[in-house]
């Protein structure tokens, strides 16, 4: 008996609350689910509304895809498509790493204010003030910023 290759399906229009654990549980009714990946925003970690599910068997993936395409779930109509084997990238199911944006910004702001950085900040502020004065002048308001 020949070893079957895994099959990957794309699921679009995911409803809110239907994420990794729910997808794995739901699609396991069709067969063995190897991997699940919900696409998420790097900045906010919120889901983008689509996911990929890898099944152990390509035929099972095709059956699941046909069964779930157009399926109405939580006021959304799911869109399911088979992903051709040549389009499955090795990093498609990589683990999502949440970037600690707040911590990075806190560290950036904690840096000492160097002379060069201070000059840059002053230039940016002066440029913003000039643009604002020009905008006010176009609107007919005579006002000068310090």
Automatic annotation (TrEMBL):
Q: Does the keyword Ubl conjugation apply?
A: no
Signal sequence range: none
InterPro entries tied to this protein: Nucleotide-bd_a/b_plait_sf, RBD_domain_sf, RRM_dom
CDD domains listed in its UniProt record: RRM_NIFK_like
One GO cellular component assignment for this chain's record is: nucleolus
Keyword Repeat tagged: no
The record's subcellular locations are: Nucleus, Nucleolus
Alphabetical UniProt keywords: Coiled coil, Nucleus, RNA-binding
Q: What is its main location?
A: nucleus
Query: SUPFAM superfamilies annotated for this entry?
Result: RNA-binding domain, RBD (SSF54928)
Question: What Pfam family is a match, any one?
Answer: RRM_1
Domain called RRM: residue spans: 7-85
Coiled-coil region? 104-142
Molecular function GO terms recorded: RNA binding
Official protein name in the record? RRM domain-containing protein
**Originating species:** Galdieria yellowstonensis
Taxonomic lineage is: Eukaryota, Rhodophyta, Bangiophyceae, Galdieriales, Galdieriaceae
